[in-house]
UniProtKB/TrEMBL annotation, chains A, B:
It comes from the Bacteria. The keyword Secreted does not apply. This is M20/M25/M40 family metallo-hydrolase. It holds the Pfam family Peptidase_M20. Transmembrane segments: none annotated.
Length: 514, 514
């Protein structure tokens, strides 16, 4: 792997001043030096935090974590407090203002964790252990107290080791390291640490709206999720939104003999097939009228990031046995997830296999999910989908039809929207904040930075973007094989150390782009 | 209801000679007179037969029935015997040749019955009782020994009361009545009585092929099933064939996240929808190339029978809540079942309802049934369906794909045909046998004869038609509300009596059409 060192010309192109390039190296070195001298203390701080059970909505546990984190911040002179809003699990807020700094960075992680089934773990999820490698490779537990050095391939095993407690410790340690070297931070720092993200963020919007006056920043940096599969740094600029509907086509009032009623009773399964086909072509393109309203064209910078290898295209497809992307067909992976997707999540009608009966089903149900891109609103999506179904000739109801409606309407659909949808959120690939951040990250790493214009998956970042109207970027640090949301979650020490260096670089910068 | 009495002109049009019209009346009167004088004896004979349990494949029970029936025939001078073929339940064969007769009628019923769950019956299914009306109307049981007359609205309740033991007794009684009046029979009569029809006729073809030399006839008359819903006599000229397939579209090797893989992994449910849509339009028309090969145009006589009210169109649709027939849309019921049907019997993929996950399913399965019409062969149907799927771009396998096949083929389908299909069978509506039979039936009844060119449902008559190459017609006698295949099967005495008269007419005729 060639080192991607920024030349002066590149620095200019990236809107980084030449002195800033020097500052990147200084910050990295400071972080490395500090970390080498304090590995045991840093790990102790991380493992102490991991020892606190943190499954929402267990308020007592979550509150204990919040108080502990407030303590970690106050010990560093960060003005910290707990934020409440109605029934929300507490969030932790902190601020560290730097004299002379003109810009503010908001750091986001969540400190709650996924539920655990301890019987599926190799060790207690809330009693962190250090292993001399991967559990899958049968690495043994290391005696932490007796260890005199810490190999970067060693790992901490505990719930939230990667998702997201250790990234928080990396951020705090980055501040320690900069101070120890007499460098930054050179930007005002705020923290917004969520306590119910793994529980679905049901009150995130409430929290943000209630405490909006604390949330002014130039950019939100979110240290959730893993780095690139290839081990490269990753910069994610957006996430798709998500919603879903249950769509039922009604046929006759009861299941009917397929001989006496085949061609006679409407076949709801065949009708559902026609309706799906009317909404989505064979290559994933959505055919619903006005569905794409509000979606901006893909910026050239985004296309370039995809062409530069935003994703490990070949392995993403080959690993689960996919011959080619459906969109296109054969579009690059990054392009396929930059457009909305209509996913048929489920189909059910009559019976298949050994249960098959020679009968015309009385109904056919589909679960249909939508992945939305920035610019689309839930309200508009729901309206155009309903309009489309009606335009195919259906009476659209929110309940079962009555006997009278069945006789009066040859085509009846029943539609229910999931209550849990949220919109996409994204920062344009050519935004100056992103150009600046990308420059810092490129300078900070010897490996290529993988810039993802839009992640296929969804996070409720639309709440953050919507309430704060502030650009955001996801800057993760943890290893991709961290078993997040699963038993035996872990973080590789080398990734933890890299994370400290990366955040030292980000917080040492003054973010004074124009 | 106007009496549909054949005039001399109509008799000519129906190819019935004027003397034949007189013979019809004579046979009816003979049957009525004989029945009135012998009701107790006729009912005793029917109830004695109904007392024998007859659920195939209980060979001992079936054989006891066969021997009993042979006895009933021999008592009438019919040359009767039991037919065997490998593992087949025994069939009963009988012949009664009439000096001077030039034509032969084959009479078919089955004497086995559907399985019973006695706990769901109001009385023992094999201990027939007479009720003074319908069980649904809370009619009481009549003391048979004490009764001195038998109301035509009374009913016998027992397994096979309608399906098909009493129709057999009606045929035998018709012969008794003709003889008592010094009339016919005027046609040679053969009987072929099946003992495993309700068990799926697994050996019917074997039996027919093994004993083909006994089966020469001019027409098979089949007394299975009920008369028209409106209480009118029914003449059915054919039945659709049936087969089905399981069709699975394979996606990625495993279920994938609908965000990270939506538009990327092929969505098997959406693909299945497209494949179904390619096979069948929204109005039930089958789009598969060459699917309709071999199907003869619908004869004008058949269209006329449909137009004349072959089916009780309004109630067939309204009763189960159907606004209009799917075929067309809005084609007459009789027309909709005269063409092949592609019935989606079941769909399954991923999950719907509360089980819905934001995931791209790895597969989608459909159960698809075909109802075939005369002229179609199973072999051809299977070939053109497979060709069609391949023409849509699919690799068609008879098993799960391997990992290598998944990566080499973007579109993979897995196809399995049911082993239980059989073809349609029908006698053309303008065949001279049918014109003659229709004439007899019209003359025999005061109610309109409902001629059904093709029944939507299926019976394995293709075996009979295929092995014997002889025209057939279904001439049922029993009430439509007989609860066939269900608990509390019954026959209404009035329908029993009418059946005796009808078969007396059919067997008194000489069938000497040209």
């Amino acid at each position: 792997m060639t080192r991607h060192r920024t030349t002066a010309a590149l620095a200019a192109a990236l809107h980084i001043t030449a002195p800033a390039v020097g500052q990147v190296d200084a910050a990295r070195d400071a972080a490395a030096t500090y970390r080498e001298a304090n590995e045991r203390a840093i790990l102790t701080e991380a493992m102490d935090l991991l020892r606190l059970p943190n499954v929402a909505p267990n308020r007592e546990d979550i509150l204990a974590n919040a108080h502990h984190i407030v303590g970690l911040m106050e010990a560093r002179g960060i003005d910290a407090r707990i934020l409440e809003a109605g029934d929300a699990m507490p969030a932790v807020y902190g601020e560290l203002f730097v004299p002379g700094a003109t810009r503010t960075v908001m750091l986001y992680v969540h400190y709650d964790g996924q539920p655990v089934q301890p019987e599926n773990w190799a060790s207690d999820p809330f009693d962190p252990v250090l292993r001399a490698g991967r559990l899958e490779d049968e690495a043994d537990i290391v005696d932490f107290d007796a260890a005199d050095n810490f190999d970067p391939d060693w790992r901490i095993y505990a719930r939230s080791a990667s998702d997201d407690k250790t990234p928080l410790i990396a951020m705090l340690t980055a501040i320690d390291a900069l101070r120890a070297a007499g460098l930054g931070p050179n930007v005002n720092i705020r923290f917004f640490l969520e306590g119910e993200e793994e529980y679905g963020s049901p009150h995130l919007r409430d929290l943000l709206e209630t405490h909006r006056d604390l949330l002014d920043a130039d950019i939100w940096l979110i240290a959730d999720g893993p780095i690139d599969q290839r081990g490269d740094p990753r910069l994610i600029l957006g996430v798709r939104g998500v919603t879903s509907m249950s769509l039922t086509i009604h046929g006759a009032e009861r299941v009917l003999h397929s001989g006496h009623y085949g061609n006679v009773a409407p076949n709801p399964a065949a009708r559902l097939a026609h309706l799906i086909t009317s909404m989505r072509d064979e290559n994933g393109r959505i055919l619903i009228e006005d569905f794409h309203d509000g979606i901006a064209p893909i910026p050239e910078a985004a296309e370039q990031f995809i062409a530069d290898g935003a994703f490990d295209e070949d392995s993403i497809l080959a690993e689960p046995g996919i011959a080619r992307t459906e969109y296109g067909p054969g579009a690059p992976y990054g392009e396929a997830v930059m457009v909305p997707a209509l996913n048929v999540l489920g189909l059910s009608s009559g019976a298949v296999g050994d249960e098959t009966r020679n009968a015309v089903p009385d109904r056919a149900e589909a679960a249909i999910g939508f992945r939305m891109v920035p610019g689309q609103t839930l309200e508009h999506l729901r309206a155009v989908v309903r309009d489309h179904i009606e335009a195919q000739g259906y009476l659209v109801l929110g309940r079962e039809p009555t006997s009278e409606e069945r006789l009066a309407h040859p085509m009846i659909a029943e539609l229910h929207w999931s209550s849990s949808g949220y919109e996409a959120a994204g920062t344009p690939a050519d935004a100056p904040e992103i150009t600046y951040l990308h420059g810092l990250m490129t300078e900070a790493s010897e490996r290529p930075v993988r810039v993802v214009p839009l992640l296929g998956g969804s996070l409720p970042l639309a709440y953050i973007a919507g309430v704060t109207q502030t650009p955001f970027a996801i800057v993760p640090i943890v290893n991709p094989d961290n078993s997040q949301h699963a038993p035996n979650e872990n973080i590789r020490l080398g990734n933890f150390w890299d994370g400290i260096e990366l955040y030292a670089v980000l917080l040492n910068a003054d973010w004074a782009f124009d």
